[in-house]
Write a structure and sequence with these properties.
Chain B: GO terms for molecular function: flavin adenine dinucleotide binding; oxidoreductase activity, acting on CH-OH group of donors. The structure holds two protein chains of two kinds. By secondary structure, chain A is mainly alpha-helical. Chain A contains ten helices and no strands. Chain B is built from twelve helices and 23 strands. The chains are: A mainly alpha, B alpha/beta. Bound molecules: flavin-adenine dinucleotide and iron/sulfur cluster.
């Protein structure tokens, strides 16, 4: 029997407020940041970069020391995520579909948080509002022609338009197939709907459903694993799950070790 | 009407390795040099505190902004080429230092075989071994002639490396010792050696010492920081034009770098280039910059496109196989394939690394294997790399795993530090039907036609690559992996241009009928126009291009000096000079 997932996904706000206690408070300059700067001195302070200096300074680095406290700062201090509001999505319904979909792509499990708890929907909202969503650095001149699959993205839609079309189409498919909105169906049913998009089986206006789904899938992983400065990977939990140490300055002293080295992650906030 | 500027002696377009080396050499000789670069001005400071995978690897911060210009592309001759619209599919350098800053730094030499590929193929296998339509030709220079220039480039960039047991003769060792051998690299080397291969640490522009190059520039010691390929180096530890040749040029006092200067045409009077037309991208003002010598070092695509737009040289015609500009386009498009080894009980520190950290072997390279009974020519280099994997990019899962959802999450987390990839970098041979020309439909920001790429895979490519994937699979199995997935080769070219290995269009040779430039990269049709870069490769050897780009740039600089000192003229008499005249 499929587990009903109402509590997690139909009420996104509920889910988000539940995770507040572990949420990063980025305006709080915690102890770890000061410790970080003190212990790592010149590198963090911004002197490294020119010629000979780099090599000498690099030797002061030892991944795994000086940074153990970096994670603590994320939890001390008050909850303060003013950035968890929407810049792009205007309708709740669209955003709720997004929430449900990304949680299926990267679900919460015994390994750790899923996409929602990691802030991925807000990450995607910001990405869609910015240059990526607007295809600002892509070639968007006509004429637009479909071309062969090997010829890649040929849609005249910008990514943020494509997302609105795609997300609403998810709901339509869900209603056609299960007579319920996407957020209200069981997770197995959600998976089936998404699978149809992934396989390119859904008719979609202006682009293939497979193209839309691959963008959605990739941007979800980006939200899980990019630096928390973008609003996802909340509290660096995505990195911790992956045993990824973030933006470390150097590995010269440890790279030859036989053993796997676990290192508390550093974010870019710790670099400034 | 463009605004007229005062004439300069040497005008260089593009500030990567190609343009940077020529700029430095000519400025050192006392010539006035101006270098025009379309992108932003950059320094090492720009690369500090930006260890940001999303911004650089996923969003291509350092790559060409396609909203103003891209290429169109097709994988079959008889379909309409369409624009490559997405940055994910098109990675070309854009700012000061170009792709030569965000490169990974593996710095190879091509094989003696490459430079005489036609002669050696005919000698060993007979003319009939070359399939109909394959346009391999000799380069008009031998490895021995180019060797001193390779040596110079390796010393300028501060290459770290060790002798390659199967490599061609060298006049000197690498200037720096090899990079460190990590446990996973050792595992690969042991396995490959067990199978009878001859491995070596890859030659790397990530410097292993605090190095001073012959021009007095410092390249710092690499910190194995992992944010390397697709990034600039915040330590100044990657041999790139910013910390070496551009700094050298600057110090002479004879050099001016004009960033945000987009070159649109080379002016040509039928015999010589008289200068270039460019737009200052900040003001929109157009300038005409006259020069005694014009050097194009603006990468394969722009080099070819500027000549076509400026109507210099005869455009290549795939139907008659006549003409030269646009001919013999090749790229390492198939080199993305290999085999992935998954380990259930071993973990590696894959998040640590450097762009060129790795090892390889050449037992299947070039013509080392006997091709008599094989259905392809050329070969490949087998390698393992440790770039320093980012968590967005590294989500390898064994074949059969879905690529999203709970199982994907579970397996991608589990195998993050338990997957090693062995891949095969293929020699890519030219065909009469693979070429560059101007697109009939699509335009750039100014309304000028885009460059059109026609690139069709052939059985040669698929057979060679399948052979290579098999070699990779064998090594991966010997490494003791629990699961080995040999990657499936796509049937058709997918019209993506990632990785920066594209060549041809303005190829070198000893015959103006079949080549555009001589072995100084001087144009047969314009004696004061030198076209520098991988655009000059008549085919793609099975190694990364930049070592050869650097060597050819030193060769070109020597030619330009000779040209200016001797009052002009062609530096090489052409094989077909009577026909030409
Ligand atoms: C991610 C990545 C990794 C790579 N790793 C390796 C590697 O490990 N080993 C290797 O050998 N190669 C590697 N390469 C390839 C390498 O980057 C190129 O071979 C090398 O940089 C070519 O040097 P170049 O000077 O010819 O071109 P570039 O360095 O790209 O310089 C060309 C310059 O010309 C400028 N330009 C272009 N058009 C115009 C115009 N119209 N007007 C004015 N300026 C213009 C560009 O902005 C650019 O700055 C890599 C490439 C990429 C993308
Ligand atoms: S890996 Fe080495 S060369 Fe590459 S960016 Fe880091 S320090 Fe520089």
């Amino acid at each position: 029997m499929a587990e009903k997932n109402d509590d997690k996904q139909t009420d996104v706000n509920q889910s988000l407020s539940n995770s507040d206690e572990t949420t990063n408070s980025s305006s709080n300059e915690g102890i770890s940041r000061r410790t970080f700067i003190k212990n790592t001195g010149l590198v963090a302070g911004g002197v490294v970069g020119g010629g000979v200096l780099g090599g000498v300074l690099g030797n002061q680095w030892f991944a795994g020391t000086d940074t153990e406290t970096a994670g603590e700062a994320e939890t001390d201090g008050e909850s303060n995520n003013f950035q968890e509001a929407r810049m792009f999505f205007s309708r709740d319904e669209d955003f709720n579909i997004l929430n449900a979909a990304v949680e299926r792509i990267f679900p919460e499990d015994e390994n750790g948080p899923g996409a929602i708890a990691l802030g991925v929907p807000y990450f995607i909202d910001k990405q869609l509002a910015g240059s990526w969503g607007l295809n600002a650095k892509e070639y968007m001149r006509g004429p637009f022609q479909e071309g062969e699959p090997e010829q890649g993205y040929q849609s005249r839609m910008r990514r943020n338009e494509l997302f609105i079309v795609g997300l609403r189409r998810i709901n339509e498919v869900s209603e056609e197939q299960w007579q319920e909105k996407f957020v209200d169906i069981e997770i197995e049913q959600q998976d089936e709907v998404l699978m149809a998009f992934d396989n390119g089986d859904v008719e979609m206006k202006g682009a293939s459903s497979a193209l839309f789904f691959s963008l959605l899938r990739n941007v979800t992983l980006e939200g899980v694993y990019s630096d928390p400065l973008y609003g996802g990977n909340r509290n660096m939990e995505g990195w911790r799950m992956k045993e990824y140490p973030g933006a470390q300055p150097a590995y010269i002293n440890v790279i030859e070790d036989e053993e796997f080295i676990e290192t508390e992650p550093l974010s870019l906030r710790d670099h400034h | 009407m463009p605004e007229q500027l005062d004439k300069v002696e040497v005008l260089v377009v593009g500030s990567g390795w190609a343009g940077g080396i020529v700029s430095a050499e000519m400025a050192k000789e006392g010539y006035d040099v101006v270098c025009l670069e379309r992108g932003e001005e950059k320094s090492v400071e720009d690369y500090m505190h930006v260890k940001d995978e999303l911004r650089f690897t996923s969003r291509h911060e350092m790559m060409q902004d396609l909203s103003s210009e891209t290429v169109t592309s097709r994988h079959k001759r008889n379909i309409t080429a369409l624009p490559v619209r997405m940055q994910d599919d098109m990675n070309v350098g854009n700012d000061v230092g170009g792709g030569s800053v965000h490169w990974s730094g593996v710095t190879f030499r091509f094989l003696p075989y490459d430079f005489e590929i036609h002669t050696q193929t005919v000698d060993r296998y007979g003319e009939e071994k070359i399939p109909e339509g394959m346009t391999i030709q000799d380069w008009g220079i031998s490895y021995e002639e180019l060797e001193p220039y390779y040596d110079r480039f390796e010393k300028t960039a501060g290459i770290s490396g060790e002798p390659n047991p199967l490599g061609p003769d060298r006049s000197d060792d690498y200037p720096n010792p090899p990079m460190v051998e990590t446990p996973n690299i050792r595992l690969f080397r042991d396995a490959a050696e067990n199978l009878g291969n001859h491995t070596y640490m890859l030659p790397a522009a990530n410097s292993t010492t605090n190095y001073e190059n012959p021009d007095g520039q410092n390249v710092a010691q690499c910190q194995y920081c992992a944010f390397c390929s697709a990034y600039g180096c915040d330590y100044g530890a990657k041999g790139d034009p910013i910390v070496t040749v551009l700094a050298t040029a600057e110090e002479t006092g004879n050099f001016e770098l004009r960033a945000k200067s987009n070159v649109r045409r080379v002016n040509y009077d039928g015999e010589k280039a008289t200068g270039v037309i460019y737009e200052d991208a900040t003001t929109g003002i157009e300038y005409e910059q006259p020069a005694d010598v014009v050097v194009l070092g603006a990468f394969t695509f722009t080099n070819t496109r500027l000549l076509l737009l400026s109507e210099i040289g005869t455009p290549y015609n795939p139907d008659t196989v006549e003409g030269v500009i646009g001919k013999n386009f090749t790229g390492h498009f198939l080199s993305k394939y290999g085999a992935v080894a998954f380990f259930n009980d071993r973990k590696f520190n894959l998040h640590m690394g450097a762009g060129a950290l790795g090892a390889g072997f050449d037992d299947y390279a070039g013509d080392y294997i006997d091709h008599t009974d094989l259905d392809f020519l050329h070969g490949g280099e087998v390698e393992i790399r440790q770039y320093g994997d980012g968590p967005i990019d590294n989500n390898a899962v064994p074949e059969g795993t879905p690529n999203w959802g709970q199982e994907f999450k579970e397996k991608s987390l589990y195998y993050t530090n338990r997957n090693l990839r062995v891949h095969f970098q293929v020699g890519t041979l030219p065909w009469s039907f693979n070429y560059l020309d101007l697109d009939p439909t699509y335009k750039d920001q100014y309304g000028d036609p885009l460059l059109r790429v026609t690139n069709e895979y052939t059985d040669q490519d698929r057979n060679l690559m399948s052979y290579g994937v098999e070699v990779c699979r064998e090594v991966a199995e010997e490494m003791g992996a629990d699961i080995v997935d040999a990657e499936e080769i796509s049937e058709e070219f997918d019209n993506t241009f990632t990785g920066g290995h594209y060549a041809g269009g303005v190829i070198m040779g000893d015959d103006p009928e079949t080549s555009a430039v001589n072995n100084y990269l001087q144009m047969w049709d314009a004696e004061n126009l030198f076209v520098v870069g991988a655009s000059a490769f008549p085919h793609f050897g099975n190694y990364n291009p930049t070592g050869t780009v650097g060597a050819l740039a030193y060769r070109a600089a020597e030619g330009i000096e000779e040209y200016l000192n001797n009052g002009g003229g062609q530096l090489v008499s052409s094989k077909n000079s009577t026909q030409k005249a």
